[in-house]
């Protein structure tokens, strides 16, 4: 029932990006669904080191994130459509997309590429995701409106 409700909801992401005292970039994302329902929170350090996390939707998992260039992406589905040189406070020079890898205690893995793409003639924040559990693989694209920094 939770999955069905999530599929029908409009999800808003509240994104905060900052560097800590060691100059490691953090990206904190809090999700809110239609009606003000609290979704999950993502706390990422962009240094390719694992962080453990648990929440009410995805369970226990560990994940890592990093800035990458498109030539480092080896999956044709994940490589599609990215705008070169785009990003809001993007990564180091030339690295304009984010790669995220997650391993869940429930036995599934997920790989995401985040960035900006043109969708139906409009610049949109997009995530392409490949989720695998055993021989089963699911590929999805999530497209968001991007409103930029809050005033």
Which key phrases capture this entry?
2 helices; 151 residues; mainly beta; three-stranded antiparallel beta sheet; six-stranded antiparallel beta sheet
- Estimate the global geometry from the Cα principal axes: globular
Secondary-structure class: mainly beta
Radius of gyration: 15 Å
Largest sheet: 6 strands, antiparallel
Question: In what order do the strands lie side by side in the largest sheet?
Answer: 4-5-6-7-8-9
DSSP, total strands: 9
Order of helix and strand elements from N to C terminus: HEEEEEHEEEE
Distance between the termini: 36 Å
Unreliable runs: none
Mean pLDDT figure: 85
Strand content: over 45%
Could you explain how this protein is built, in words?
With 151 residues, this protein is mostly beta strands. It has a domain of 99 residues. 7% of the residues lie in helices and 54% in strands. It has two helices and nine strands; from the N terminus they run H-E-E-E-E-E-H-E-E-E-E. The strands form two sheets. It has a six-stranded antiparallel beta sheet with strand order 4-5-6-7-8-9. Strand 6 and strand 7 form a beta hairpin. The longest helix has 7 residues. It starts with a helix and ends in a 7-residue tail after the last strand.
């Amino acid at each position: 029932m939770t999955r069905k409700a999530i599929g029908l909801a409009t999800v808003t992401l509240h994104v905060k990006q900052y560097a800590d005292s060691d100059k490691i970039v953090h990206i904190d994302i809090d999700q809110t669904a239609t009606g003000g329902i609290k979704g999950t929170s993502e706390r990422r350090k962009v240094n390719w080191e694992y962080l453990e996390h648990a929440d009410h939707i995805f369970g226990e998992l560990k994940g890592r994130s990093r800035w990458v260039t498109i030539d480092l992406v080896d999956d044709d589905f994940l490589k599609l459509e990215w705008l070169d040189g785009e990003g809001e406070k993007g990564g180091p020079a030339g690295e304009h997309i984010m790669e995220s890898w997650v391993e869940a205690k429930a036995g599934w893995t997920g790989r995401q590429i985040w960035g900006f793409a043109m969708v139906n003639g409009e610049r949109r924040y997009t995530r392409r995701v490949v989720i695998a559990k055993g021989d089963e693989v699911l590929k999805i694209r999530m497209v968001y409106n991007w409103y930029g920094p809050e005033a």
